[in-house]
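Posting this for the archive.
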Amino acid sequence: MTTSCMLNLATEMGCYSLYGAGILAGFLLPLLINTWYSLTYKRDPVSFVYALWVTVGLLQILSMPLWDGQRLFEFAWRESLPNIGHLPTGVFITSLLMYFQISLFTQFGRNFLNTRDSFPLLHHVSSLYIGFEAVRLLLRVLVQDPALIQGLQMISFALCGLTFIGYPVFAFIRYRQGLRAAQFAFLSSSLYGIFWLLGVLHDVGYSVFTLLPFLGLSSAFQGSEFLQACTICLPAIITNFSIQSRTRGIERKLRQTMQAQKEAVENQNLLLESTVKERTRELGEQRQVFEVLSLQLAKYLPPQILQALMAGRYDTRVSTQRKKLTVFFSDIKDFTTTSESLQPEALTEYLNEYFSEMTQIAIEHGATIDKYIGDAMMVFFGDPETKGVRDDARACVEMALKMQERMTVLQQRWKAKGFEHPFVIRIGINTGYCNVGNFGSDQRLSYTIIGREVNVAQRLESQAEAGGILLSYETYAHVQDMVAVEERQSIRLKGIAQEVKAFAVKSRLTQTASDVLTLHDPKGVSIDLHTRGLMPEERMRLAQSLRGVADQLDKKGE
């Protein structure tokens, strides 16, 4: 082959470098469009840096000189562009784009490999390299000293070599650690480093492609621009695969995480359901225990106090208050003599039956059962719940009547069982002010009543006839329309200076509601008119008297 033919072939192959750069740039354009589009739904910092790198790389390729030395954007101007510092405008723009392209690729590698945490030494070297390149570009613009520029370039080669040799090494390490996408990072960084090395050798005047002269490759790679285009395009294409692989890995991990979270939530729900069932069962058991305990406590405490305690409405401090109560005492007449004639088992049976029947009647009438004292019962009305002094007294007397009526039935039953002399009870009832509340100490309390009126009720009970009910006047005043009584002589009770009027209940009054006219005003006025037995003229005189009282009230009101 003649020398002329060889020159023509070299010239023709040199043009191929321009075609190759254009083809590589053509590859970048759809890659760039796809990358930016994917960022619209995938907010990934690593992908964003990659998109910026590809964008700047494409601009760098378009800014590089063509085969005849003319840069593409220079076609927009017919006249020469002014220099920027000591550099021509075209060279400055290409150098600036190259700096950003190298910096973005370096930053992409740092983010992809997480060098800050995994490889801090490489992270620091790459940071130093990016900073040094910025300083070198600034000095090229401001200083025109070939020796200085040459020295800075040698330092740049060293730092760049450490950085771009370190990337494939550490990418391989990350791949061995389980990062599958690192295999593409290894290939792209290796290609970037290889073409960077070829560019360095070209800058120092040596090209490995001269070893293949007959294929014309040395002419095709005669300009460094094609090498730079290869440095950008080929790693960009391969890096796109690493981005896709990394994205799939992230999505796979995300799906695994979501699946694990879903399973964790399902397991948590199952555990929660199991816990709820277990807690429900435990609460049910505790409720049963609580109900049993409440029933047991109800045998020792008045129901009203127990309910208030359970509802948190009762104060357990040592404290009392004075209230007007109706106090009830009952005992079994000649209990000692009667008990001596019975076997202990029979006595216990009859006594328990007696207390059970009397207690049930007391509860039905709203009584507060204070205590059992041997064969005696102490009951009161008016605390902790009250219907008013009058209604409390009436309820107490009604209870006493029901007890005596029930005793009649029990006596017949006991006689049928062989109880020759069944129990006979006597009852005393008094109404007056007592001290009621918690007595005792901080360690143990007793809810009870004390005071003179309690002693009066007990003494009345001791003076009552067998099977009888003895009332004080204060109680009789509230129930005189309910019972027929026989007034007894005033009784001087032991330990009480003042004589107590006593009224023995003889029977119930069978009068109807029309026989009693009542007026109860919220202000405290209470009038009960017992009209049974009044003659017509007596009723008329009573009516006139009431009208006279009403007229007097009207005049005082005026």
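Residues 5-11 have pLDDT under 50 and may be disordered. Residues 265 and 271 are 9 Å apart (CA to CA).
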